[in-house]
Amino acid sequence: MNFLVLAAVTRWFRVPLIWTVIEGRGCSDTEQRIALMQRYLRLFGRSTIKLLLADRAFVGVKWIEFLCKNDIPFAIRLREDMRVPTEAGHELGLAAHPGRRGRSRFIRGRFANAGAEAPPLTFVLKRLRSGDLLAVVSNRPAPAAPNACRKRWAIECLFGDARTRGLNLEDTRPTNPRKLALLMALVALVIVWAGRAAADKLGNATPKRRAHGFLAQSWFRTGFNLIRNRLAAGDAVLPWRKLGKPLAQPARTGRVV
Asked: Reduced to 3 states, what is the DSSP secondary structure of residue 176?
């Protein structure tokens, strides 16, 4: 059993907003992705989306056409073995045209199976210091796309918070889709609760960083540990009661990513 999740990412927070339970193994299909996005648009509207980020599994002509038709800005990573017809009429293999290491190359083109009426997209290629190729497709100005894709890692951190590094979601082992959907709702509430607890503890400060530059504790872990300590003391509900109240000096926020 898998989840298709649409989450909000800000500077410190990553919170599941809506999700779909996928029965059986494998990735979601185009219809499931479109249906999930349509649910979001009905609830919040397109103007709340600053940029939609997704990994290499979330590609496809119909899916990209849906995003373009609804004017949803996106930056989606691509596989290295893809071939792209350019506006100049050439067909390029992405892996063969990344340019020099550390510099980005921008190509205007379409997906191979897209119709002639499909809008041209920007393909950004960059050879990373590790030697891996970063290939991104976007319908927005190209220079910002590679840097924006770094924020997608926050979604992996969110899954870590819900699974092995926090709430141990997979250890519950339910198989009923309705129960799984309810369980994810509870996980989302706890993540919000932990975020508020961390905000109470840190205020305008930021979590400490170690010598290698990474946080000693994530925002989630800071709040989650505080909740567990307060459960022992009996006052864990204090941050929960403050959820509807603004901070004295709110932390920086962002739109949906």
From this structure: coil
Beta bridge partners of 256: 49
Domain boundary among 113, 139, 165: 139
Q: Please report where in the chains the tokens 């505080």 appear, as a residue.
A: 226
* Crossing angle between the packed helical segments 153-162 and 177-202, to the nearest 10 degrees: 110
| Cβ atoms < 10 Å from Cβ of 119 | 11
Phi-psi region of 245 (alpha: psi -120 to 50; beta: other; left: phi over 0): beta
- Exposure b/e, 16-36, CB count within 10 A at least 16 = b: bebbbbbeeeeebebeebbeb
Question: What is the pTM for the complete model shown?
Answer: 0.77
Q: How many domains does the chain have?
A: 2
The boundaries of the domain holding residue 82 are: 77-139
Token pair of 237 as six digits = 């509900």
| Residue 107 pLDDT > 70 | yes
Give the residues across from 169 on adjacent strands: none
pLDDT tens column, 216-236: 778 888 888 888 888 877 776
